[in-house]
Structures are given as C-alpha cells and as structure tokens.
C-alpha cells in the first residue's frame, strides 16, 4: 500500500504524453521571448503601467469543450475509447484493469504491486526483457504497467510512425507475460531495500501510520508490505493473480494522439481481437472501510528530529456525495494561500513551516479528512491547538463574503486545468466509466460549486467535520516538545514503528 498522498484527490494518473510537454516548452519559450522583447525595447512602458495585483483585470475563462471521441465495445468485451489529436506526431494510450492491491491476500501484501512490476520487466513469450527494453529505447517509446489500491493500469507512448510496432509490444506485454523468476527476485530485492529505509523519512512515517490509525492496520487501505508477506509471494502467485484479473472484458482501453480512427480500430482488432474473454468473470466485492481509532493522541518518538510532523483527522467520504462540491469550497476556505490555516497558523501565529487541511474523498470507498503540517518541536502543542481551533471555527463562524468568493473563484478558475489536453479529458472519461460515475460528473461538480453559499459551507462543516473523532499523530522529538503532548491529552499513546523481521511478520 502506498503512503497517503495529500495531493492525490483522484486515483488514476492522467495520460500525459510527450507531445504536451513539447507543447508547453514551446509556449514557455514564446512567453520568455515576449518578455525579453518588452524589457529590452520598452522598459519605460513597464514602469508606467505597473499595477497592484488587486487592480489586475482578467477576461472570463473560456468554456470547457470536450474533444470528439469514439467509444465502442469489442466482441470480447473490451471497451475502447479513441480520441484523435493531430497536433503532434505522437500517440499514447492507457488500459485500466479492474483489479487492485485491496484484493490481495493479507498474507501476501505486495502481490499486486509485484504482479504489475514483473508483468512489465519480466519479458514476454516473444521477447525477453532486455529485447523489449532495447526495442522501445531505440524508438524513444515506452510501455509501463502498475497496480495501485483500486485499479491496474498499463500505458504506452510512441511516435506515430512507430505506432504499430509499439502498440504490438504493448499488447504482447498485456497478453503474453512470462513473469521471469530472476526479475521477480530483483523486484523483491528492491522492495526489501524500501522496507529497510522506510523509517528514514518522517513524512513517510506520519502518512503511513496515520492511515493505519484511521482505517486500521489490517485494512486493505492501510496495510503495508513486510518482509514476511514478501517472502510468501511466489512466481505462481503472480501468474494466478494475473489470470484472475487480466481479461479483455475486465479492461478499458483509451488511445489519444495522431491517428485515423478507422485505422486505429483495425490495429486494435489485429492485436486484441483474438484475446479471449472470461465468461465466468466475477467482480470481487469492494472492501469496506470504517474508522478504527475514534480520537486519541498518538506519538512516534524520533529523537534525531528538530521539528514535528503532524497529521490530525478522521474518516472522510466519497466523490459521489451530493455535498462534495460544497466540501471542496470548504477546503479552499481552510486550505492553501489565503486560507484560514495559512493566514492564522502560519502567517499570524508563526507556528508552522507548512500547514494544510483537506477533505480528500475517494471514488468507491471513504477517503480521509486530514489536517497537519510541520512545526518546530517547541511549537508542537500550540500548533495542534491552533489547527483544532480553525476546524471548530468552520462549524461556528459563518464564512465571510470575501472568503467565500476567494474559495469559489479558486475552485472554478482551476476547473479548466482539468482539461488542459485531450489526454486528461480521455483519462477522466475512462475513470468515470470504471467507477460507475456519469460522464458529466465534473460538470455537475462545477455547477454545485457555483451555487454554494456561506450557509452551505457551515452546514457541511457541521455535518462532516467531527472534532470528537479527530485522531492526532505526531512524529517528533519527545524531549524537545515543550510543553509536552500531555498538556493537551490525558493519554499520549506511543507507536512502535520497529520493522518486523521475516520470521515475526
């Protein structure tokens, strides 16, 4: 299970291809040239027209337009999305597989991740791993595979002139992996190294242990790979996991880039048409999630640290909540530059290097509400008090008009960046189908934000924020934290993060 990522409000990584990076570099270059021209030839104009940022006026944002795309289903059950984009001679694609590490056996935590890794690195029936890598590197192409908590993904990128060859290799990796034993051994060695080093990073500690406190250490949404669970995994386990989930009728394929749709359909039929479906495919039940620890202050003592790493929160919700748009506005009131936490805890009180507070939902299981940050050891207790105060104020103090306007504008102005390129748009369409959301979900969210009122924000704060259930975790130097944590809690519960050896599990 990967550590919780605060920025990770959405599960599936967008299919950002090289063409968009090239396009961005081109745009940046034009901007730099324009700025240099003005500086050299019209320096007085800049001085004469300089304005305070509050006086700047901007045109309204353009309406988001969804590029044209095709969606169809193959006879073997594979769903396909095609979105041509002729701006650059590049093609990229992603397959989403209905699988995830939340379905791996508890005694074999790490199995899903290893399956994804060795599916790609282990070679195929036609090409060894080295041959596969060489063919891709010669063409500046890529094929990647990974499995996270709620889905698996496989992607490719290539120049349009190399599309058929690279797409063929992509199909080969998905359909004919051999899971070479030596590549499995190598992947295990690398994971063992990660286990050995996992307590070196205090950010990693606080994120990992906070999830365990909220979800429970045995929850599929919080458990971690250990030496013992890694040792339990054999090559046959990878083969069995692959055979359980990797079927065309358990997969959504999306392709975007420089291609003709009819020709692309033929290419897909050529390389995926003979892949047989699994008629007896059954979808596993999604594991439930509930809050394990209801309140409490927990502490990980790291004497070498000069600052404290803090997370405070409780179980959150899902994206399909009717209150999600309002909760996201609440996020902006609380979080970010200009938010209450930044203005009060960091700027006015000077208690934090960084501070945040996020209602972070998930698609098909409850996410988290988590606030926290980093502070000097001596400021840990005031920092915790200040965070709790701001959370409670959301429930008692009505949001002011300027706060509400700033929060809504921040959300709405960033909305267009969800559709910066066709890859992002296609990724969203696939993601919504995968999780059973309507294709216009994001536009419904946008409308919800637009109609949010101050009273709405206070209502959801009262409904969803639960101070009595806030779990508090501090990773820091116990000796240096003065006043001590006992000043704000009758009991400070220590957490042992000793890494179990292979025998003890």
Can you give a write-up of this model?
Residues 232-410 form the Peptidase M16 C-terminal domain. InterPro entries: Metalloenz_LuxS/M16, MPP/UQCRC_Complex, Pept_M16_N, Peptidase_M16_C. The chain crosses the membrane at residues 25-42. This is Peptidase M16. Keywords: Membrane, Transmembrane, Transmembrane helix. With 505 residues, this protein is of the alpha+beta class. It has two domains: 70-272, Cytochrome Bc1 Complex, Chain A, domain 1; 297-494, 2-Layer Sandwich (Cytochrome Bc1 Complex, Chain A, domain 1). Helix content is 42%, strand content 15%. It is built from 17 helices and twelve strands. The strands form two sheets. A six-stranded mixed β-sheet has the order 1-2-6-3-5-4, sandwiched between helices. A hairpin with a 7-residue loop joins strand 9 (354-360) and strand 10. Helix 3 (111-121) packs across helix 9, helix 11 (324-334) packs across helix 17 and helix 12 (340-348) runs antiparallel to helix 13 (380-396). The longest helix is centred in the N-terminal third of the chain and has 24 residues, at 18-41. It is globular, with a radius of gyration of 25 Å.
């Amino acid at each position: 299970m990967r550590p919780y990522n605060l920025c990770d409000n959405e599960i599936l990584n967008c299919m950002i291809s090289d063409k968009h990076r090239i396009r961005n570099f081109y745009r940046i270059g034009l901007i730099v040239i324009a700025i240099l021209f003005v500086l050299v030839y019209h320096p007085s104009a800049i001085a004469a027209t300089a304005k305070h940022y509050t006086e700047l006026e901007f045109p309204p944002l353009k309406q988001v337009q969804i590029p044209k795309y095709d969606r169809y289903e193959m006879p073997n059950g594979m769903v396909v999305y095609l979105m041509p984009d002729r701006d650059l001679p590049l093609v990229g694609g992603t397959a989403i597989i209905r699988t995830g590490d939340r379905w791996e056996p508890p005694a074999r935590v790490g199995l899903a991740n290893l399956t994804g890794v060795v599916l790609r690195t282990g070679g195929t029936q036609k090409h060894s791993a080295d041959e596969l890598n060489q063919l891709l590197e010669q063409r500046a192409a890529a094929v990647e595979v990974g499995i996270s908590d709620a889905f698996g993904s496989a992607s490719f990128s290539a120049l349009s002139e190399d599309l058929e060859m690279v797409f063929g290799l992509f199909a080969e990796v998905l359909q004919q992996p051999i899971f070479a034993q030596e590549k499995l051994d190598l992947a295990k060695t690398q994971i063992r190294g990660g286990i050995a080093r996992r307590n070196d990073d205090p950010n990693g500690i606080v994120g990992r242990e906070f999830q365990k406190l909220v979800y429970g250490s045995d929850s599929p949404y919080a458990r971690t790979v250990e030496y013992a669970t890694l040792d339990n995994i054999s090559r046959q386990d990878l083969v069995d996991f692959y055979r359980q989930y990797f079927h065309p009728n358990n997969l959504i394929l999306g392709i975007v880039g420089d291609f003709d749709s009819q020709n692309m359909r033929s290419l897909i039929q050529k390389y995926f048409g003979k892949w047989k479906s699994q008629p007896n495919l059954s979808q596993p039940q999604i594991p439930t999630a509930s809050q394990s620890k209801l309140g409490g202050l927990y502490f990980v003592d790291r004497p070498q640290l000069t600052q404290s790493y803090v997370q405070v929160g409780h179980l959150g919700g899902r994206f399909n909540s009717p209150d999600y748009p309002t909760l996201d506005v609440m996020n902006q009131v609380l979080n970010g530059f200009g938010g209450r936490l930044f203005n009060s805890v960091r700027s006015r009180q000077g208690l934090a290097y960084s501070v945040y507070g996020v209602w972070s939902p998930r698609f098909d299981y409850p996410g988290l509400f988590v606030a926290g940050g980093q502070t000097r050891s001596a400021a840990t207790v005031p920092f915790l008090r200040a965070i709790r105060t701001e959370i409670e104020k959301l429930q008692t103090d009505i949001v002011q008009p300027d706060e509400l306007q700033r929060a809504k504008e921040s959300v709405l102005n960033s909305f267009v960046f969800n559709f910066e390129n066709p890859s992002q748009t296609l990724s969203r369409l696939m993601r919504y189908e995968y999780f059973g959301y309507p294709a216009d979900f994001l536009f419904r969210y946008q409308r919800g934000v637009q109609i949010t009122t101050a009273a709405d924000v206070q209502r959801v704060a009262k409904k969803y924020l639960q101070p009595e259930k806030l779990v508090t975790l501090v990773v820091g130097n116990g000796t240096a934290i003065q006043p001590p944590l006992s000043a704000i809690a009758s009991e400070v519960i220590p957490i042992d993060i000793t890494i179990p050896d292979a025998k003890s599990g």
